[in-house]
Design goal:
This protein is mainly alpha-helical. It is 87% helix and 0% strand. It has two domains: 1-53; 56-119. The longest helix is centred in the first third of the chain and has 30 residues, at 24-53.
């Protein structure tokens, strides 16, 4: 059996567990939470490796641009973490887009500084 067939069987087994087992809704919630945590852990590991590989470039930015970089990344994390509550109201939507727009602006400023003076 090849890897594609194995993956299809895993998906069919998970779908059968959700459809036919008692408490299938709870099983679906568990699977969704498990997959969310797995994806988040993968993203964190990729970003940690990226940071380790590019540490000299990050420290070569200087204090101001390194602060902009870390602040922008923190703003993105906060904006995405509070996305559900922010998008429930008009002022929240505005705050969400201002937060992410400001973070994007800061990331572009850091990237331009790195391209101009980078290592």
């Amino acid at each position: 059996m090849g890897p594609a067939a194995r993956n299809v069987l895993i998906i069919v087994a998970l779908a059968a567990a959700v459809a036919f087992l008692p408490g299938g809704g709870r099983t679906a919630d568990f699977l969704a939470a498990f997959l969310s945590v797995a994806v988040l852990a993968s993203i964190v590991m990729i970003l940690a490796r990226f940071y380790r590989e590019n540490r000299p470039a990050v420290f070569g930015l200087g204090e101001r641009h390194r602060l902009l970089l870390h602040g922008a990344l923190g703003a993105i994390v906060l904006g995405l973490a509070g996305r559900d509550k922010l998008l429930d109201s008009g002022p929240g939507i505005l705050a969400f887009f201002v937060l992410l727009g400001g973070a994007a602006f800061a990331l572009v400023a850091v990237w331009r500084h790195h391209r101009e003076y980078g290592i």
